[in-house]
Design brief:
With about 400 residues, the chain is of the alpha/beta class. About 25% of the residues lie in helices and about 25% in strands.
């Protein structure tokens, strides 16, 4: 079954009759959209998307100039009256997903992938997110957000219905929930700002309690620098640093063996020098939690890159299977042993038969504690204690220790 996804923002239809559309109002909305909503969609970790910013043709003299400021070819400003032509030109697919989003709100950067991974529900016309966050850009406060049938919905169109559409429209979202498959996953963020036309959002949908733990905001914004905080603080950035000692030991060992023609997953891509060593005759995928590392990695020659927290179980269904997996810090950023072992079970499951997971004793001994909430039980442990080694062996794997304290876990 094939699916394609097209994000849609209706730009020149305010949601309150109190607003008179003027050039000054449009300029403000476009600037805010370009620096916030646009970035959140263009930063989706599934790159094969389209994004349509839809205007009524009567406003063409006021908005046509905006086309020159949209710098990603996946995004187009189109006019509602011409949307039929765009729909007909779209490539064939079994289903089309059209998530709609207001011009001043955000989707998490893994929303496209999340939606495409959902099975098509029988008897449902929509996907709909009901929970998320509300961020006040004026006060830098973040709140929980919930709406029984909010505006964060996705049209589900089978090919036959999609091809018959005359134009892209929006509907009364308050009734979407009657025929929607709803998700509680916090994939959305409502933004409050100086000229938010929906002033009642300050009360509607908010929990009324500010969230003290702003880690939710940092996690939501991963891979997307919107100026809502300091992206450098979201994760350690090794994109311009020298390769770590533990990484060098694993790389040195791999250079001594034949890796030609292998599929490799690098967890924690750092400065991406790994690709220059092994990329010529191998297929390499990479994972990082840092947007700067991802941006540098895009120029290095990876087959796939994922901006993801490696301890997040949603990552693993996205991965392929590999001959070689390298992670020199599998324990370092785990908050507790539960999440460490959950990660190990998941990552080892991505090995091909005969595949090998490479790590190092130095990396397994190092735990990030500065500014992190780490269970004290994880500190001071040996790289893998006897119980942990026994557990790995019960799963059918073998453990060896090679050159310069390189750990190798092999799948039969």
């Amino acid at each position: 079954m094939t699916k394609q996804i097209i994000f849609v923002t209706t730009f020149t239809k305010p949601f309150t009759p109190k607003v008179t559309i003027t050039k000054e109002w449009l300029d403000y909305r476009f600037d805010f959209w370009l620096s916030h909503t646009y970035k959140s969609i263009m930063s989706q970790d599934f790159p094969d998307i389209k994004y349509w910013l839809i205007s009524d043709e009567q406003y063409k003299p006021l908005v046509e100039e905006y086309k020159e400021r949209i710098d990603d070819p996946r995004c187009k400003l189109i006019y509602r009256e011409q949307s039929r032509e765009e729909l007909l030109a779209f490539p064939d697919s079994d289903y089309y997903l059209l998530p709609r989003i207001d011009s001043d709100d955000l989707y998490r950067t893994d929303t496209a992938r999340f939606l495409l991974n959902q099975p098509i529900p029988e008897g449902k016309d929509f996907f709909q997110f009901t929970t998320g966050y509300c961020f006040d850009t004026r006060t830098n406060k973040i709140y929980s957000w919930y709406q029984k049938s909010g505006p964060f919905y996705t049209f589900i169109y089978p090919k036959e219905k999609f091809r018959k559409l005359q134009e892209i429209t929006t509907i009364d979202h308050s009734r979407v929930h009657f025929t929607a498959q709803q998700f509680p996953d916090k994939m959305l963020m409502v933004l409050l700002h100086g000229r938010n036309t929906e002033d009642h959002l300050r009360d509607k949908g908010l929990s009324g309690k500010e969230l003290v733990d702003t880690g939710q905001l940092k996690d939501f914004l991963r891979g997307c620098d919107l100026g809502l905080g300091d992206p450098e603080a979201y994760s350690l950035n090794y994109s311009e640093k020298e390769t770590t000692g533990s990484q060098k030991k694993v790389e040195t060992y791999l250079q001594k063996i034949n890796t030609e023609g292998k599929t490799i997953l690098l967890v924690g891509i750092g400065n991406s020098k790994f690709v220059s060593l092994f990329g010529g005759k191998n297929i390499i995928d990479g994972i990082s939690i840092n947007v700067h590392e991802i941006n540098k990695g895009k120029k290095a020659g990876y087959r796939n890159l994922w901006l993801f927290n490696k301890y997040d179980p949603k990552l693993f269904p996205l991965l392929s299977t590999y001959d070689i997996i390298v992670d020199v810090n599998p324990k370092s950023f785990a908050c507790c042993l539960y999440h460490f072992w959950s990660y190990m079970r998941n990552i080892l499951s991505r090995l091909k038969p005969g595949g090998k997971f490479y790590s190092s004793e130095d990396g397994l001994n190092w735990v990030q504690t500065d500014g992190a909430s780490v269970n004290p039980k994880i500190l001071g442990l040996p790289p893998l204690n006897k119980d942990e080694e026994d557990y790995i062996k019960k799963l059918g794997y073998t453990i060896t220790k090679e050159y310069e304290k390189v750990f190798i876990i092999s799948k039969p």
